[in-house]
Specification:
Elements lengths: L1 H17 L6 H9 L4 H8 L4 H17 L3 H25 L23 H20 L3 H24 L5 H37 L1
Helix pairs in contact: 1-8, 3-7, 4-5, 5-6, 5-8, 6-7, 6-8, 7-8
């Protein structure tokens, strides 16, 4: 996890400071365009649309609250709100131009920044958070590996879709995933700290 986070963070820095396409971006875009239709790309990107993400997070928050894990319910809501702030801050801070819209800009309106890819970021902030809870609940190594593999595959699938419709450069996708991974690491420590404070009074009473 640490190695993946570091690599994605480096990609985020490179993409943010690149201004335009980075070396290799154009080649990847051309390769994807020759293998995926715009219609298929829209469906891939839908995995992290608000219409999909909001119900998933609300369900997770409700289930966590019912199980007495209020800190997780709060983290789910905070994560979604924070991801939107990070995305908007990135667009306003770097104003990196997008590769180009589709259908005259109908799918990707002009004036919206390219860095970071919000969809890629939300794979890590939303589905990554769920994967983290899965990992902490499981004592099987293969389940833990599968959870993180699902997040990585999700990043690739969603990223390919966003690149195909001209919403982002491939480096935007890597950068968005990097920022999302950094946020997830922060949430890991936050949950651990909150949970520790919740357990402390009971532990002290038992002693």
């Amino acid at each position: 996890m640490a190695a993946v986070t570091s690599a994605l963070a480096a990609a985020a820095i490179a993409a943010a400071t690149g201004g335009g396409a980075l070396p290799g971006d154009a080649a990847v875009v051309e390769w994807i365009e020759g293998r995926l239709s715009v219609h298929g790309a829209i469906w891939l990107g839908a995995l992290t649309s608000s219409a999909m993400v909001v119900p998933v997070l609300l369900t997770a928050a409700v289930l966590a609250a019912r199980a007495g894990r209020w800190e997780r319910a709060v983290l789910a809501v905070v994560t979604f709100a924070a991801s939107k702030v990070i995305i908007l801050a990135g667009w306003l801070t770097w104003s990196r131009p997008r590769p180009g819209g589709v259908a005259g800009g109908v799918i990707i309106p002009e004036g919206m920044g390219s860095f970071p890819s919000g969809h890629a970021l939300q794979v890590w902030t939303v589905y990554g958070l769920l994967a983290l809870w899965w990992v902490r609940a499981s004592d099987r190594g293969w389940e833990r590996a599968l959870a993180w593999l699902a997040v990585v595959v999700g990043t690739v699938v969603v990223g390919v879709g966003r690149v195909r419709i001209g919403a982002h450069w491939p480096s935007d996708v890597l950068g968005g995933a990097g920022l999302g991974a950094l946020w997830l690491v922060g949430m890991m420590w936050a949950e651990r700290g909150v949970r520790g404070r919740v357990r402390s009074p009971g532990a002290a009473a038992d002693g």
